[in-house]
Amino acid sequence: MQIYQYGKIVSKNKNYLIIENQGSGYLLYVPRIDRFNTDENRKIYLYEYENDYSKITYGFASFRERILFEDLISIQGVGPKTAISVLNGGLQNAINLIAANDWKGLAKIPYLSEKNAKQIVFEFHGKYKKFLENDKKQNQENILETDSKEVDKTDDLNDEILQNNSVEEKTSSELEETLKMLGFKPNQINYALTKVEPNENFENLIEQAIKIISNAREFRS
């Protein structure tokens, strides 16, 4: 499983761009292509979609955007074109609508029927509500941590160790929950959690965990 491609954007048009890496060019269909600029070096997250008639690679600015795309096309009647249309309206907007059970707002998006909008909300309301709750909790903790550092900058080494352990436990819990949402099995998740290296960037942790699972011989089909 290739999670992302890093390279230079050498061309783009209304719907797709071409990214070059080590002499090879890759054509990627992306939502909100205005976020990508020619001659820019970017990491782009990938999803390969294949059916009986074609094989197309889609690209995304963030891993969460890729997750939502994959969730959307898992709904019967929602194809990549519709999923891209949803993302063209903004990732955060789509997540907010799903988390709020607002299928009517979702159904206003081009190509998305009321029936499919209802099904999306039914299937993923809880998941994206939890995403928003986790984001809010993380923001609050960051504010508290910043305030604490400003009030007292003389924490001793033992307090620092305890704080780091607490952060690692919280991150491990969030990583476990995310891997569950992505459909990995408990034994795969537990294996990845024992192998990942600490990283402040949560998306990098997810990438690392998926690579570990994908490369493990015991999990290969």
TrEMBL record:
One annotated Gene Ontology cellular component of this protein: Holliday junction helicase complex
Main location (coarse class): cytoplasm
The Holliday junction DNA helicase RuvA C-terminal domain, residue ranges: 173-214
Residue ranges of the region described as Domain III: 167-221
Keywords linked to the UniProt accession: ATP-binding, Cytoplasm, DNA damage, DNA recombination, DNA repair, DNA-binding, Helicase, Hydrolase, Nucleotide-binding
Membrane-spanning intervals of the chain: none
Subcellular location: Cytoplasm
Domain statement: Has three domains with a flexible linker between the domains II and III and assumes an 'L' shape. Domain III is highly mobile and contacts RuvB.
Quaternary structure and interacting proteins, as annotated: Homotetramer. Forms an RuvA(8)-RuvB(12)-Holliday junction (HJ) complex. HJ DNA is sandwiched between 2 RuvA tetramers; dsDNA enters through RuvA and exits via RuvB. An RuvB hexamer assembles on each DNA strand where it exits the tetramer. Each RuvB hexamer is contacted by two RuvA subunits (via domain III) on 2 adjacent RuvB subunits; this complex drives branch migration. In the full resolvosome a probable DNA-RuvA(4)-RuvB(12)-RuvC(2) complex forms which resolves the HJ.
Role description: The RuvA-RuvB-RuvC complex processes Holliday junction (HJ) DNA during genetic recombination and DNA repair, while the RuvA-RuvB complex plays an important role in the rescue of blocked DNA replication forks via replication fork reversal (RFR). RuvA specifically binds to HJ cruciform DNA, conferring on it an open structure. The RuvB hexamer acts as an ATP-dependent pump, pulling dsDNA into and through the RuvAB complex. HJ branch migration allows RuvC to scan DNA until it finds its consensus sequence, where it cleaves and resolves the cruciform DNA.
Name by which UniProt lists this protein: Holliday junction branch migration complex subunit RuvA
Highest classification ranks of the organism: Bacteria, Bacillati, Mycoplasmatota, Mycoplasmoidales, Metamycoplasmataceae
Gene transcribed to yield this protein: ruvA
